[in-house]
Every structure is written in C-alpha cells, then in structure tokens.
C-alpha cells in the first residue's frame, strides 16, 4: 500500500484537526496544542501525531491541575487513574502514560525531544509494557489433533466447513 492510499484511508490530517478542536476546549488544551506543534516540528509523522492527539484527549480529561505547575502527587493521581482503568488494555495504558509524561515534560521544559531533561515529577513513571507478547509462536498453534477435535465438536456441516476454511486459510 502506497503512502498516498494509506493517508486517504486513515485521513490523519482530518483526525488531527478534529482532535485539536476537542483539545482546545479542555483544561491545559493550549499547552497540549503547542506540544502537538512541537512534535510536528521534530518530524513526527501525521500518524504519530494523530495517535498522540487521541491519547491527549483522554489524558487531559483526567488532569485537574495546571500541567506547568504539576507536582509528583498530581501526576501520581493521574497515573493511578490510567493504571486502574479496567476498560483499557496494557498497551493503551502504556501510550497514555507516555503522553502524560511528554505533556508534563513539554510544559516544564519546553521540549519533549529525545535526550531532553525529564522532570522528576514524571521521571518515575513506569514506561514498560507488562502485557504478554501477542506474537504467534509454534507452541501456540493448534495441532492437527486439536483441530480435528474441534471439528468433531461442531454441530453441523456448515460449521465444520467454516472451520476447515479458516484452518486451511491460516496455514
């Protein structure tokens, strides 16, 4: 897929414009919008900026303080809300912690580029991904015997046929 087609499908510029309108109406929205402009100046792709903007909307809604004056306890409250959200996957929580850290870093230091100083208020934030590796490995695949047992358990010929199509298409 060429870059032009990908941008047509996802229309990142339109998404970014929509996120910017929402962010502008939120507390600390002015700082967040400047950070998005800063990320663009660092050369991040429209897709990456769109991703940051999407997470910024949720993060800004969790923040009840001025990000430029954030204390560690302020940040801890927000991270606790992120980590405690049962609807978000670990990958989503990770991205929200990254965006929170960058937002506070930008608000306090004026930059969030690689190598920039990280304020102590956010330097403690755990940015590791604790979720399981979702890659398919040989030991996770069905054996032919397991597949045959599933087919035997199917209720009708149509279901059995669909199982065979899925199994053969995946190998």
Walk me through this protein's architecture.
- The longest helix is centred in the middle third of the chain and has 20 residues, at 90-109.
- Helix 3 packs antiparallel against helix 4 (46-62) and helix 4 (46-62) packs across helix 6 (90-109).
- By secondary structure, the protein is mainly α.
- The mean pLDDT is 88.
- The chain is built from 9 helices and no strands.
- It folds into 2 domains: 3-123; 138-170, no CATH class.
Concise synopsis of the structure shown:
With 171 residues, the protein is mainly alpha-helical. Helix content is 65%, strand content 0%. The protein has two domains: 3-123; 138-170, no CATH class.
Features:
9 helices, 0% strand
Radius of gyration: 22 Å
User: How many beta-strand runs?
Assistant: 0
Distance between the termini: 24 Å
pLDDT average, as an integer? Answer: 88
Question: Helices and strands: which structural class?
Answer: mainly alpha
Overall shape: elongated
Model regions low in confidence, pLDDT < 50 over at least 5 residues: none
**Strand percent estimate:** under 5%
| Largest sheet entry | none
Element order: H for helix, E for strand: HHHHHHHHH
In terms of topology, how is this protein built?
Blueprint: H1 3-10, H2 12-24, H3 29-41, H4 46-62, H5 72-84, H6 90-109, H7 120-123, H8 144-153, H9 157-170
């Amino acid at each position: 897929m060429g870059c032009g087609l990908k941008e047509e499908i996802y229309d990142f510029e339109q998404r970014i414009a929509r996120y910017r309108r929402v962010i502008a109406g939120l507390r600390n929205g002015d700082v967040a919008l400047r950070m998005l402009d800063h990320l663009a100046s660092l050369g991040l792709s429209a897709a990456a900026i769109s991703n940051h903007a999407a997470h910024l909307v949720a993060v800004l809604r969790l923040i009840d303080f001025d990000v430029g004056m954030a204390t560690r306890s302020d940040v801890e409250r927000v991270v606790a809300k992120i980590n405690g959200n049962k609807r978000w996957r670990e990958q989503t929580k990770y991205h929200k912690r990254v965006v929170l850290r960058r937002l506070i870093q930008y608000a306090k230091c004026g930059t969030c580029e690689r190598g920039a100083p990280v304020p102590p208020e956010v330097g403690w934030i755990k940015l590791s991904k604790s979720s399981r590796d979702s890659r398919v490995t040989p030991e996770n695949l069905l054996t032919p015997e397991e597949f045959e047992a599933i087919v035997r358990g199917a209720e009708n010929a149509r279901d059995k046929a669909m199982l065979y199509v899925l199994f053969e298409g995946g190998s």
